[in-house]
Design a protein that fits this description.
The complex is a heterotrimer of chains A (102), B (170) and C (118). Chain A has 102 residues and is an all-alpha fold. In chain A, 76% of the residues lie in helices and 0% in strands. Chain B is mainly alpha-helical and 170 residues long. Classes of the chains: A mainly alpha (102), B mainly alpha (170), C mainly alpha (118).
Chain lengths: 102, 170, 118
Amino acid sequence: MTGVPLSWYLILSALLFALGVAGFLFRRNIITVFMSIELMLNAVNLSFVAFSYQLKQVNGHIFTFFVMVVAAAEAAVGLAIILTVFKNRETLNVDEVNSLKN
Amino acid sequence: MLDTIFFYLFALLVVGGGILTITRSSAVHSAICLIGSLVGVAGLYLLLHAEFLFAVQIVLYIGGIMVLFLFVIMLVNLDEAARERQFNGQWWLALACVVVVGLQIAWFMRKGAGAFKLAPAAAAAASAAKGNTEAIADALFSEYLLPFEIASVLLLVAVVGSVVMAKKRI
Amino acid sequence: MPDGYLQIFIFLAIAIAFPTVTILAAKLIRPSAPSITKLEAYECGIKAASDSRGRYTVRFYIIAILFVIFDVETIFLFPFAVRYKTLGWFGVAEIVVFLAILIVGYVWAWKKGALEWV
């Protein structure tokens, strides 16, 4: 590893994950909450790739790739759910969507 | 030297984009800042010699998922959504959680400092000869064969689920 | 530092710096005289018909979903494409199974009328 040590990548990943947690907890707009989840996924992906580089293995790349694939499927279905919720409740506020049935 | 500079540049993009994502009140601004953050992560992948993942990050994450987010923001009524309160009163809880997570990670990194100095694996020399995409292909189509096929089932479920759910609105 | 990427990174840094410096310089030099008319959307001189941030129809969303899903499928084809000679017929069989499962979804969406634009 030239120059940048592994721990810097891990610290950056931890920072990004903490930002995602904070956004998840104090945002109300359901779309922004979803974006915070994407931030956390990216933090985990970053540390996977950093470890993979350190160990000179390709397994971490494959894990990251599958995380991205699952994130795509999750975004497609999750955003469709958000659209349905918005159609039924006319709101995007997570605090007001608190029952499964009207 | 140069890669340290570029690491700082991309890290600034990642963290700055992340902070703006969770603090901007407009959803469109949040999405644009998140795209900036994802571009920074893609740059770090390039620094880490993960060229295939760099391309996937740009093509799939930024070109696919974030465009989907922007579509949904456009689909819901923006004026209605902007008038609602964007932040709830739980910032102290969020701060406490961030501090706890940060302390945990700092503690683990202090305790496990020895574990980060890993010896390079023996297979390093063999995999260095071929490119990143070739190495991923070899692992994906032999060792990770089952997850690869299951991924297609997952995508099928995603197509069916989202089309059924979105179709109801027409 | 990855060997071949130095030029690309320098190009990227310049590409980010150029518009930033230009916009900042323009902001410092130009006179400031804001008015409501200047902020309106420009539609060839006539008055704007409506706000550009209106609601879209949900049909765009279905097309976007299908794009993302088949985007993922295309990305799975890339590792196969660079390695198909070494993988041989076994690789072909794997990718055919993968594609067959996804094409079921495509045909279903087509039959369901998700691709119709009416």
